[in-house]
Design goal:
652 residues, 21% strand, alpha/beta, seven-stranded mixed beta sheet, globular, binds 5'-O-(acetylsulfamoyl)adenosine
């Protein structure tokens, strides 16, 4: 969001206190929230210990809450043992085993429901299937599936036997899948014949075959869910149908009681190099964060129908589809397909049909739906909604107000939730029964979270509206534990900047006079395209892997729907492409799609003879950003090795 937007909102002073009706019914009112904050302030470690004893079911209770001896490799609840799937499923069987756990709607419109009892049985069957294939505690299992119950079942089954899952978003290409399998050294890959999106089949099995044919020596088995039903070849000795694997397996499965710190999953995310990082999360601390934040931020009650639209390939789909709401025993809606398929009312129809009470989505989706006009949502019954959430990027006040008035009919609080793959759970967000909201601000840190804005020296910025680094000054249970296979990079990326004292989020932010946080965006070379993290270096590496490309530089350009668009400058081997370059541009876009996935395809490509470099050989990214945005150039270009290149880069 631009500074101008923030200023206009601040000047208008739009402040939305929680409605009395919501306050009265909410699990956490202002007094209870203040008490939690006070307890956490007074004794942070004791606070988290109490929360962990109360919220989670332990097999072996912990005695040690936080071990800081190897900071910043913190250990939480170190000597406790538990099982995450028991905490999400078994704990509900006695009292609400017949409540609906999952409501699944496929893109063509078929609806399938699973009660907690049924989900538990399916998870156990599949967990037994994994064990039958030789999967043991600590083995890595990669999941490359559509957003559907079996993806959740696979995740929960891994948790049940202590296998470490790594979900790879179905939109990533075969090559991205291969890299993630190899980095994790996975033993088993789980996929489906295909997925559905916008009326098209996504060829997941074909991509899985391609990934496995180009490496992935660690993979022993490929499990394939029959979903779309179209023909796919199976490799004898390696491939097994999901349905065949589970059909003779018992519906109970002895859980593995794992250490609190046992890795629950890896999730690869983009950083400022070409190589995605395998973010490693723990079992107990992660689950505690997911479960508590779901209670606090979404005020989840037993009869709520919770719909988070994120795919399980992203952290939001882990914490607020697969783990948080299930740990709380709620009903979770899953929808496999596209938001405007077969028409622009699909999301609103799903809310009406399944009586969704809590809806959690990304600003990019809201902006896309907002453009289609108010008549579409107005023609559906959205009266079941009571709370709306936003995540993934700063929400512009215009989209916020539309969400509030047109979707929430001025009744529903909006929670703008700031967090990251690395934080595991929401850290900064309104608590809907307690916090007054301002459009565009994620408001205040949750209890126990010591978020702050600091300057270059690490000193807290106290001047209202002055920007700085967003940091967290105390460890919290759901924080990442390390980067898989690369602890040095973990320390370098997140801790080194302030002598290992503060976790550095990589965002810049400021606080207003009320102490409210306003997130400005990334300070590293990470783009946020439609709420998805994408490293500029990843796209650059993909481009230069093309035989005709010599050099590439990628920057972000503001985009009205996607938030940011991918803008690439390309230097070719030999002559600069001239005249009608459309076919070649399309070839390069396809190429990037194959290397990374469709989300990384550049929106614009501009060819040049050279890239602007300083005399020391550094690409002047700020200049490239200004040019991509058609902004006036304020940078000093006199240090440029080749100042005449600027006109060419401008497309002149
Ligand atoms: C949950 C998620 C993390 C990055 C983060 C921010 C941006 C996320 C908000 C936000 C402003 C928000 N994980 N971000 N939520 N910016 N307001 N409410 O998105 O690892 O994929 O991305 O996303 O830049 O650092 S993520």
């Amino acid at each position: 969001m631009s500074n101008k937007n923030i200023e206009s909102v601040l000047q208008e002073g739009r402040l939305f206190p929680p409605a009395d009706s919501f306050k009265a019914a909410a699990g956490l009112d202002a007094a209870k929230l203040a008490a939690l904050h006070a307890a956490a302030e007074h004794d942070p470690t004791g606070f988290w210990g109490d929360q962990a004893r109360e919220a989670l079911t332990w097999h072996t209770p912990f005695t040690d809450v936080l071990d800081e001896s190897e900071a910043p490799n913190y250990r939480w609840f170190g000597d406790g043992k538990l099982n995450v799937s028991v905490n999400c499923l078994d704990v509900h069987l006695a009292e609400r085993g017949d409540n609906t756990a999952l409501v699944f709607e496929s893109e063509p419109g078929a609806v399938r429901r699973l009660t907690y009892r049924e989900l538990h049985a399916e998870v156990c069957r599949f967990a037994n299937g994994l064990r039958a294939l030789g999967v043991e505690q600590g083995d890595r299992v990669v999941i490359y599936m559509p957003l559907m119950p079996e993806a959740i079942i696979a995740m929960q089954a891994c948790a049940r036997i202590g296998a470490i899952h790594s979900v790879v978003f179905g939109g990533f290409s075969a090559l991205s899948l291969r890299d993630r399998i190899e980095d994790a050294g996975a033993r088993v890959l789980i996929t489906a014949d295909g997925g559905m999106r916008g009326g098209n089949v996504i060829e997941l099995k074909t991509a899985a075959d391609k990934a496995l044919s180009e490496g992935c020596a660690s993979i022993e088995s490929l499990i394939v869910l029959r979903h779309t039903g179209h023909d796919v070849p199976m490799v004898a000795g390696r491939d097994v149908w999901w349905q065949d694997l589970v059909h003779d397996k018992p519906a109970t499965c002895e859980p593995a009681w794992v250490d609190a710190e046992h890795p629950l999953f890896l999730l690869y995310t983009s950083g400022s190099t070409g190589k995605p990082k395998g973010i490693q999360h723990s079992s107990a601390g992660y689950l505690l964060g997911a479960k508590l934040s779901t209670q606090w931020v979404f005020d989840l009650q037993p009869d709520d129908v919770f719909w988070c639209t994120a795919d399980v390939g992203w952290i939001t789909g882990h914490s607020y589809v697969a783990y948080g709401p299930l740990a709380n025993g709620a009903t979770v809606v899953l929808y496999e397909g596209g938001p405007t398929w077969p028409d622009a009312g699909r999301f609103w129809r799903i809310i009406e049909d399944h009586k969704v009470s809590i809806f959690y989505t990304a600003p990019t989706a809201l902006r896309a739906l907002m453009k289609l006009g108010d008549d579409i949502p107005n023609s559906y019954d959205l009266s079941s909604l009571r709370l709306l959430g936003s995540v993934g990027e700063p929400i512009n006040p215009e989209a916020w107000m539309w969400y509030r008035t047109v979707i929430g009919k001025d009744r529903c609080p909006i929670v703008d939730t700031w967090w990251q793959t690395e934080t595991g759970a929401i850290l900064i967000s309104p608590v809907p029964g307690a916090t007054a909201t301002k459009p565009g601000s994620c408001t205040q840190p949750l209890p126990g979270i010591d978020a702050a804005i600091v300057d270059d020296e690490g000193n807290a910025v106290t001047k209202p509206d002055a920007g700085g680094y967003l940091v967290v000054r105390r460890p919290w249970p759901s924080m990442l534990r390390t980067i898989w296979n690369d602890n040095d990079r973990y320390i370098d990326t997140y801790w080194h900047r302030f002598q290992n004292r503060y976790y550095v989020a990589g965002d810049s932010a400021h606080r207003d006079a009320d102490g409210y946080f306003w997130i400005m965006g990334r300070i590293d070379d990470v783009l946020n395209v439609s709420g998805h993290r994408l490293g500029t270096m990843e796209v650059e590496s993909a481009l230069v892997a093309h035989h005709r490309v010599a050099e590439a530089a990628v920057v972000g350009k503001p985009h009205p729907v996607k938030g940011e668009a991918v803008f690439a400058y390309v230097v070719c081997r030999g002559e600069r492409p001239m005249g009608d370059t459309r076919a070649f541009v399309e070839e390069l876009r396809q190429w990037v799609g194959e290397q990374i996935g469709a989300i990384a395809k550049p929106d614009e490509i501009r060819f040049a003879d050279n890239l602007p470099k300083t005399r020391s050989g550094k690409i002047m990214r700020r200049l490239l950003r200004a040019i991509a945005r058609d902004e006036e150039i304020t940078q000093d270009i006199s240090t440029l090795e080749n100042p005449q290149i600027v006109d060419q880069l401008r497309g002149k």
